[in-house]
Design brief:
By secondary structure, this protein is α+β, with helices and mostly antiparallel strands. It has two domains: 90 residues; 46 residues, no CATH class. Helices cover 15% and strands 27% of the residues. It contains two helices and ten strands; from the N terminus they run E-H-E-E-E-H-E-E-E-E-E-E. It has an eight-stranded mixed β-sheet with strand order 2-3-4-1-5-8-9-10. The protein has a two-stranded antiparallel ribbon with strand order 6-7. Strand 6 and strand 7 form a beta hairpin. Helix 1 crosses helix 2. It is globular and about 50 Å long.
């Protein structure tokens, strides 16, 4: 995938979505976020049927029985907006789908290392919270939504994914 007109580097992003959504809804949301054609540029990742050249966005979907139901891994081509990463990408996805999204917080906030059991909860309204996973050993991702355990994050300014 070497094209001199491409910007940035190919990359991977991941997040969890609260409720399952049909593929068509997810593809349309991604098309809006990245300004792409959902029928050509966005495909579900299928290791048994790889296409060359790959589409701009490939999505690997794993479903969970409870908690955040869709675990999504995005394989983004070099021509997909390089500055839209991590929490910023999750905030666009939460708004487009109209539901809560979890993503990994940066490794450090204000010079303090972040526990692997912490997630960044991005609400469809744009609100951001650091939240704790109830059982880090579980395959399902449930978070503690009690107000005292949710730490509001005021902005993404200065955050690096």
């Amino acid at each position: 995938m070497t094209n001199k007109n491409m910007i940035g580097k190919a990359r991977m992003e991941g997040c969890l979505v609260q409720e399952r959504v049909p593929w068509e809804v997810l593809a349309k949301a991604l098309a809006g976020i990245f300004n792409l054609d959902p029928t050509i540029d966005i495909r579900e990742f299928d290791v048994d049927n790889l296409v060359t050249p790959p589409p701009a966005v490939q999505v690997e979907i794993n479903e969970h029985e409870s908690g955040f139901r869709m675990d999504l891994t995005f394989y983004l081509g070099a021509n997909v907006e390089p500055e839209l990463t991590g929490p910023r990408f999750a905030s666009h996805l939460a708004a487009a789908l109209g539901q809560d999204v979890l993503t990994s917080p940066p490794a450090e906030i204000d010079g303090q290392k972040i526990s692997p059991a912490l997630w960044l909860l991005v609400r469809s309204t744009g609100e951001l919270f650091l939240v704790r996973q109830i059982d880090p050993e579980s395959e399902d991702v449930d978070i503690d939504r009690s107000p005292k355990s949710m730490r509001r994050v005021s902005s993404l300014v200065g955050w690096k994914a």
